[in-house]
Each structure stands twice: as C-alpha cells, then as structure tokens.
TrEMBL record:
This is Aminoglycoside phosphotransferase. SUPFAM superfamilies: Protein kinase-like (PK-like). It holds the Pfam family APH. PANTHER family: AMINOGLYCOSIDE PHOSPHOTRANSFERASE DOMAIN-CONTAINING PROTEIN-RELATED, AMINOGLYCOSIDE PHOSPHOTRANSFERASE-RELATED-RELATED. It comes from Actinoplanes campanulatus. Residues 41-203 form the Aminoglycoside phosphotransferase domain.
C-alpha cells in the first residue's frame, strides 16, 4: 500500500464520521443498522458502488471510487450535460431493479415529519412564516401514493461520481429502501434545477414535475433542523433556504 500522508475528515457529527486515509474511506457510525443497510444495498444495486474492504464495528472501510462528484450544493456543477444524463440513466437502472427486502418510510410518517419540522421552523423563527407555509403547500404534491422502487434515499450530487461522462460510483447507501422514484430525482437536482431536464433525458420516462417540486420543498423543510443542530448551514447561498425562498418567486423547473 502506498504511504499515507494525511487523514482527511470528510464529514463528522455526533451520529457518524467519515475519514479518508489515502484511497480508503473509513465510516464510523453509532447505528450499525445503517451500516447493515448500506452493505446490503450496495450488494443489490445494479449500478457502480464502492467496494467493501472490511468491517470491524463501528467502522466500515470502503475503497474510493474513481472520478469526481457531480457537484456540491450551493456551487455551480462542473459536470457536463452528458454526465447529468448519465446520472439519470443510472437512477433509472436502480429504480428498475428488484426491490430491497426492507420497507421504506410510510406516507403517514413522511407527512407527520413534515408537520413537526414546519412547526419547529415557525416556533423558532428560522424562516418567515409565509415561506414555510407556501412550501408546506407545495410539498403536499409529493405526499401521495406511489409505486415503490429501489430508492437510494439520499441521492445528493456529492454522492454521485463521474469520469468522462460515465457514472463511476454512487456512495452513501444507508438510507436505501423501498420508496418513491421521484424523491431520488428531486434530491439529485435539489439546488440544481437547471439540470433536471438533462437528468430526465437520461432517466427516459415522463415524470410529474409538481411532485418533483413538492419533494424539493419537503426535503428542504425537513432537513433544516438537522442541519442546524449538526453544525451545517442551510442558509448558505444556493442551499436549502434559498431553495425554499425560490418557491416564493414562482421559480419553476424546466
């Protein structure tokens, strides 16, 4: 093994931490159930995923995937339109795979979580009430029955890696479950709505854009408290609060 010059802290908070040591990622998680899900989901997924090197609870060691992430929330994506279309095609392949054997969140659980997080946002004055109310209304479009698919569950652009316009790996599978296909598409394009058309070109089927918009609002509303309490800033330019405010300007997806 090549000599290691440094240890990089990729992310760290009171639930889990990820370190990079050379070409190895070490995931340290307080909840081993999440690690169980991650390993099994990567085994079942029909798209490129990190290679499991070893597991010694509470640590999971994964090989780094080649390429670079599609981008970061709050920053312009360096990826080409072809790379975004390739991401859409990969997501479609995942959604067409057999369902994982464990269920996802029920519709009533998602609705209750939205209610609770909106109440917290209002009570704590985190955002103007009209912004919360409007996005709560938009989120209703997402809270409808769906045909479950094999859903990644946390398909942020930082979790999708590309090289030469090809998908080289999708990481962080701890939220994978049976769920709504449009939730994955919404999380992938959150804050990068200009790339939704390219993703849908690769995905290859018609989708309900109102549902995508609903999941953008739902995700941004329910993530806010967790982000604040774990040392992240959803008010940074282009991040969750800007996504919510954009609904007030009547901005729509392509």
């Amino acid at each position: 093994m090549a000599p290691v010059n440094q240890v990089e802290v990729v992310v760290a908070h009171d639930e889990r931490a990820t370190l990079r040591v050379g070409d190895v990622f070490l995931k340290i998680d307080s909840d081993q159930t999440r690690i169980d899900v991650e390993i099994e989901a990567m085994t079942l997924a029909p798209i490129p995923t990190p290679r499991v090197l070893w597991r010694e609870p509470p640590v999971l060691a994964l090989a780094a995937v080649p390429g670079t992430a599609l981008g970061r929330l709050g920053e312009p994506s360096p990826a080409s339109p072809a790379a975004w279309a390739a991401a859409g095609a990969a997501v479609r392949k995942l959604h067409g795979a057999p369902l994982p054997p464990w269920p996802g969140k029920r519709l009533d659980e998602l609705a209750a979580r939205l209610d609770g997080e909106c109440e917290w946002l209002v009570t704590n004055g985190v955002l103007p009430t009209d912004v919360i109310t409007r996005n709560r209304q938009i989120a209703e479009a997402a809270l409808r029955p769906w045909t479950p698919v094999f859903m990644h569950g946390d398909l942020q652009i930082t979790h999708v890696f590309v090289d030469d316009d090809q998908i080289t790996g999708v990481i962080d599978w701890s939220e994978a479950a049976q769920g709504d296909a449009l939730y994955d598409l919404a999380v992938l394009t959150l804050g990068h709505e200009e790339h939704l058309g390219g993703v849908l070109t690769g995905y290859g089927t018609d989708v309900d854009l109102d549902v995508i918009r609903g999941w953008w609002s739902w995700r941004s509303l329910v993530a806010a408290r967790w982000l604040v309490e774990h040392g992240f800033d959803p008010s940074l330019p282009g991040c969750e609060f800007d996504v919510l405010r954009s609904r007030m300007r009547g901005h729509t997806a392509p």
